Structure of Putative FMN hydrolase/5-Amino-6-(5'-phosphoribitylamino)uracil phosphatase:
Amino acid sequence: MIRPPLQALTFDLDDTLWDNREVMTLTEEGHYAWLDETLAEWLADRGEDHLGRFAERQPITAYQRRRRELAERHPLRRGDFTWIREHALASLLEEFGLPHEAAWHWATRAMERFHDLRLRVSPYPEVDPMLTELGTRYRLGSITNGNLAFDRLPLRRHFTVAIAAGEIHAPKPDPRPFLMALARLGTPPSRAMHVGDSWKEDILPAIRLGMQAAWIAGDTPHGAPLPEGVHRLGHIRELPALLEMIRQK
Ligand SMILES: [Mg+2]
């Protein structure tokens, strides 16, 4: 099929522009440990240490369970991870024995800590120069289901549009964040390519809309032949060569 030249590229973030696993583990454990320690000092200062240690009475598994329960009870919010985490923390802190207002104060502060830690991602070294170069040729957008404060990362400057799909209550594979990105980039789907690592959340919704797609497949085993318009890459650093090949077709 002859396709019109590409005008725009949209990118997934986590596990596409950086490896997210380590940061998520550090963030998950780090903000909970910070809350446990800082709260213990605060309670000790006020002579209220009879409550015991928060993380002993509410271990991190209780926090994870509470998040799953909240996501089930509030299906619309299921992708809004910041909302879910903050509500889970506040409810656990209240059960621990803090008054409502103090519980929310500490939940909010723990989430500030969460966002600081969550931003400690290390984009692959090729990514920044690659986006600078691609930005001279294509309109660039990002679409993430993650809840990192992307506006605070230097990489954000490359993107005309940055969509946090969970916060608009339409996490990928919902087509709406894609449609929103394309509308703001002023491009039809046929002239855009989405780049992402998740077959289900990135590639399928993009090709259903008529976009092209670059699948960052890593070491996923090769299976059935790829649908038309999908290109398989081992790593994001291979993207410029793919785009060059498409341009010369
Ligand atoms: Mg991803």
